[in-house]
Specification:
- The structure is a single chain.
- The chain contains eleven helices and eight strands.
- The protein has about 375 residues and is of the alpha+beta class.
- It folds into two domains: about 140 residues, no CATH class; about 170 residues, Histidine kinase-like ATPase, C-terminal domain (Heat Shock Protein 90, 2-Layer Sandwich), CATH 3.30.565.10.
- The strands form two sheets. It has a six-stranded mixed sheet with strand order 2-4-5-8-7-6, covered by helices on one side.
- Helix 4 runs antiparallel to helix 5, helix 7 packs antiparallel against helix 8 and helix 9 runs parallel beside helix 10.
Amino acid sequence: MTRKLKTRLQRAWADMAALDWHVVLMLGPRHKFSEAQWALLDPRSAISTSVKFCGWLNALLLGVLAAWQMPSPLKLGGFVVGFLVALALLWQAARLWRRPTMRTLYLGYAWVLVMAFVSTFVMGMFSGALRLEESVGKQEAALLAAVLTLLGSAGIWVLAMARNEMLAGWLREHEQQQQALALAQQLSSAQIQPHFLFNSLASLQHWVRSRDERAATLLDALTAYLRATLPLFNRQLLSLGEELEAVRQYLAVMQVRLGQRLQVQIEVPEAVASVQLPPALMLTLVENAIEHGVVPKLGAALLRIETEQQNQSLCLRVIDDGPGLPDGPAQPVRAGRGVGLSNSRLRLAQTYGEAARLNLRNAEQGGCIAELLLPWPAQERLAS
């Protein structure tokens, strides 16, 4: 028994030590946010029209309840005061919803006290205007002020605490998503570069030893590729124009290695060059098209990059005329061609949510089509 009691006391002490007295003593929201964090949180603070309409209905209900408790001569005054005070409290609640901070909460407490005093004062004015006895409505007005003080203070405290914890949780989730996005970006970079560089350097080494004239051309192309791609992997987004420059340098290296076998067509209008996308997405698609479409094909192979406007999206396609997908029908990326495509799908989801897609399908005349759909602002769309 002594050991069990000691264990329970230790657990109780540990629980007491873990208490957040800032919360226990009702001091207010415990999370403080920097200006940079507020910049992320402010877009999430909008109050919908439905919620605003619900607030107005509740204000009317509070006015009716206030009038219900008043003597007959003061019912109209009770409704008006209750309705206006409810609107004032809802206004303060909206401020707390947008910025649930200690300062806003304590200003809210002061606001509740002011509203309680104003409600009592206005009810007194109604009584005086109606020339009622001094005792008529006095008790009801005091009761209304007390109820407003208690319920208003408790309500804004709960709102501030809950909203503060909600925003802190969203920030933690956002930070985790950004870390996962950065990791996926690094994995995508690691998936492309070592495989590609190893094969290119192996070809370069062989040509240097055999005094092949292609060695100098390959070295120049490889240097240009590294110059174009290495800075990009430290960024979360880049323009399509920058990505295509890296793709062109990659294809230049592959054309040196594969010779006349590889034919390239890039038809991307300058108007779409500013579209933003996570880095290495197009590189991944092109690298997969080379590895699974061009290399396995006997003889000349064509790789084509094109764009198409689709409603509020921009469709980027990487097309090869190789053997195509083994299963035939359209496939999502998760059933596609490797880690690089899975990472690309993850980064698209984290950056654009459901507004972007990446799919693979077989072309009607043979080969594979990789389609990348990105959201495209209206002002940047191609003219129809």
